[in-house]
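Quick review question:
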């Protein structure tokens, strides 16, 4: 059955029935009618109440069936007991869509879940869509439609702007709505989706991508009903030029538990979620308030002209410039390198020796002056290495006058100025100037720098926008014959699998007798490495099953006897013999991994640090497949990247070879999908630049074909 109305009509309805409408502001049904009126809803309001002829000066009707139709939307906030009956009445009356504010359904256990299912079935059978239940409805400032009972609507105005938000928490949405108001930030549409029983977050994400009034999209999510669709929509948003910022609950165990009881959402892996966001140029975030400040900066400030540029820090307080400069690295920012032209432009105001970043305007000849600030800002804005200005404001005379210059200069120079008014109420004059000029400001440096980081990530995401990666030559998709259908693979089997995708592996041969081992070693060439082969053993070296640098036949014989005895002791009856292989040498050891995320599918991982990788957790994750360039970007994001780039006399490693191996592995992950439960290459030994990389160990687990 087709939907009775399109989604856009639910967000901007021409008529709204309020079921349980009341004159009592203490009741949901009272507040909804009052807010609709208060913010000048231009459509028709139809209060439904069997006991009243008039509600809040509007004619009321005994039932939705009795009200003049057709009606686009009905809002229901009655207790769960009466809900099904009313939904049936709405379906009967031809209502387009229902906003169900009522809670205690799937969020309250099995009984509620069963009722929720019946309500959805009733609505869908009629082609009527449902928002909620357990939601706070829709606030649509651009359409002046407050279809919600959120207390945020107690505020004086509803400011229209470019931020669209979809939230799985109504209370959080209301909080952000009221917070934004204090800072002059405005929303296009705010949609609280609650339990997502019918319409879900992705439906509205899609709507906002196509919505002309929305310029930046913010999401608060607890779990995704259709993770693959979410992922596809993130890519579509980037194509449409709309940044997406997303806070997702469940990064910690406690958060995941809370999400499960709040909206019955399964949190999924936060790391996979964040990796998928990053791959699509969307920005995963932790703090909803910081998300709104950053979104507002994206909407109301000029964008960064390019990613990777430095920032200029300027302030009238030496202390403020110092601590701000110190904070930059934590947010991935750096001070720009001033050009000669910038220095020359600043020379009239500062002693030449003092011309460097950060700039303390207190050091100007004659002290801080408005003209001096203006001259510096203008110079920064044409400097090729400066993308943004960070302006921390500590108390000083004439704060408001100085603030008043900033919005105009920023717009004229097409460069964001992130102004942090860090003083208390005495700074309200300056804040007022920003408000008057419709320009964002921040109250704390960390919020300003976080906003910069988001702007940078968005610029980066745009720059990285690339066609989907192409399959490298010789990367599958044929699999080697003779692998087990399911279960753990040995090192040798794993290497044959990755070799089929063009990843270099050690020359090696299996041996079941000492004589075999010697023959294999002679054929491979000394020195060799010998390892015990047993499917039952995960970590060979822990049990003394890895013998490196064996230089002659005698060493090979000794190693054979020793290894077989050790396997027998550790996992009796599981020895498959030994693996004799070439001894590789290189500059660094990487771990490359594949996991199958239940939400987002095949993910690849890369890390550095050998056995310390588990402690350091210095790994990068991305959805498969990736191009070699994307793989290299992952390597560059590692904290230990400088080790690969060459430190303390060590040569830079063959990053191209490592990136190529990771890209090839990502195609293996992509092709095998859910059949590949997990795979590790640990380590991939990477040689000096130009000399390649080689997988020396691997293990994998296959699942039966579906
Ligand atoms: P484990 O099962 O303990 O991970 P590995 O096969 O990874 O066993 O061997 C342990 C370590 O020995 C590796 O991390 C690597 O440093 C080294 N190693 C293993 N195989 C080779 C090889 N063929 N050439 C050089 N070093 C190797
Ligand atoms: Mg290993």
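Suggested answer, residue by residue:
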């Amino acid at each position: 059955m087709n939907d009775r109305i399109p989604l856009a009509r639910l967000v901007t309805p021409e008529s709204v029935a309020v079921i349980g409408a009341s004159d009592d502001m203490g009741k949901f049904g009272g507040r909804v009618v009052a807010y609709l009126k208060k913010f000048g809803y231009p459509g028709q309001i139809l209060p439904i109440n069997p006991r009243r002829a008039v509600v809040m000066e509007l004619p009321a009707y005994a039932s939705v069936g009795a009200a003049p139709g057709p009606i686009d939307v009905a809002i229901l906030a009655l207790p769960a007991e009466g809900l099904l009956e009313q939904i049936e009445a709405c379906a009967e009356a031809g209502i387009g869509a229902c906003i169900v504010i009522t809670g205690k359904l799937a969020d309250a256990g099995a009984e509620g879940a069963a009722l929720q299912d019946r309500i959805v079935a009733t609505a869908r059978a009629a082609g009527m869509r449902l928002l909620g239940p357990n939601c706070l409805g829709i606030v649509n400032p651009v359409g002046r439609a407050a279809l919600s009972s959120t207390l945020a609507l107690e505020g004086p105005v509803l400011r229209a702007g470019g931020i669209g938000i979809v939230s799985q928490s109504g209370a959080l949405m209301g909080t952000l709505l009221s917070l934004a108001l204090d800072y002059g930030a405005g929303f296009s549409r705010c949609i609280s989706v609650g339990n997502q029983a019918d319409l879900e977050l992705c439906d509205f994400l899609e709507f906002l991508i196509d919505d002309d009034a929305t310029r930046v999209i913010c999401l608060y999510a607890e779990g995704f009903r259709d993770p693959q669709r979410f992922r596809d929509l993130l890519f579509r948003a980037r194509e449409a030029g709309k940044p997406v910022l997303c806070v997702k609950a469940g990064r910690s165990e406690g958060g995941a538990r809370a999400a499960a009881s709040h909206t019955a959402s399964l949190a999924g892996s936060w790391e996979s979620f964040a990796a998928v966001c990053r791959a699509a140029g969307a920005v995963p975030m932790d703090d909803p308030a910081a998300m709104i400040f950053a979104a507002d900066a994206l909407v109301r400030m000029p964008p960064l002209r390019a990613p990777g540029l430095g920032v200029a820090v300027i302030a009238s307080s030496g202390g403020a410039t110092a601590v701000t400069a110190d904070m930059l690295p934590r947010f991935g920012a750096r001070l720009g390198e001033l050009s000669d032209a910038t220095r020359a432009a600043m020379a009239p105001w500062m002693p030449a020796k003092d011309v460097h970043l950060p700039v303390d305007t207190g050091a100007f000849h004659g002290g801080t002056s408005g003209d001096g600030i203006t001259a510096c800002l203008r110079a920064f804005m044409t400097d090729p290495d400066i993308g943004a200005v960070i302006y921390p404001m500590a108390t000083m005379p004439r704060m408001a006058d100085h603030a008043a210059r900033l919005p105009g200069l920023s717009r004229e120079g097409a460069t964001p100025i992130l102004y942090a008014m860090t003083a208390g109420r005495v700074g309200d004059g300056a804040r007022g100037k920003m408000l008057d000029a419709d320009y964002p400001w921040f109250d704390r440096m960390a919020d300003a720098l976080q906003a910069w980081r988001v702007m940078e990530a968005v610029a980066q995401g745009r720059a990285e926008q690339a066609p989907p990666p192409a399959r490298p030559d010789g990367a599958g998709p044929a699999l080697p014959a003779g692998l087990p259908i399911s279960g753990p693979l040995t090192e040798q089997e794993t290497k044959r699998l990755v070799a089929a995708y063009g990843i270099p592996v050690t020359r090696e041969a299996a041996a079941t007798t000492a004589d075999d081992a010697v023959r294999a070693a002679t054929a491979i060439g000394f020195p060799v490495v010998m390892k015990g082969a047993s499917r039952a053993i995960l970590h060979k070296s822990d049990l003394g099953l890895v013998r490196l640098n064996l230089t002659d036949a005698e060493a090979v014989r000794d190693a054979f006897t020793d290894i077989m005895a050790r396997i027998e002791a550790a996992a009796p009856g599981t020895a498959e013999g030994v693996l004799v292989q070439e001894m590789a040498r290189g500059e660094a050891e990487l771990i490359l991994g594949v996991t199958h995320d239940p939400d987002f599918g095949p993910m690849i991982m890369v890390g550095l640090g050998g056995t310390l990788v588990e402690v350091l957790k210095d790994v990068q994750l991305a959805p498969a497949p990736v191009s070699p360039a994307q793989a290299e970007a992952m390597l560059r994001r590692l904290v230990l990247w400088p080790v690969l780039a060459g430190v303390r006399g060590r040569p830079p490693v063959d990053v191209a070879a490592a990136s190529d191996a990771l890209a090839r592995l990502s195609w293996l992950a992509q092709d095998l999908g859910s059949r590949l439960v997990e795979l590790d290459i640990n380590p991939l030994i990477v040689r000096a630049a130009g000399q390649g990389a080689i997988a020396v160990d691997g293990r994998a687990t296959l699942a039966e074909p579906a």
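Why it works: The CA atoms of residues 119 and 473 lie 53 Å apart. The first strand starts at residue 15 and ends at 19.
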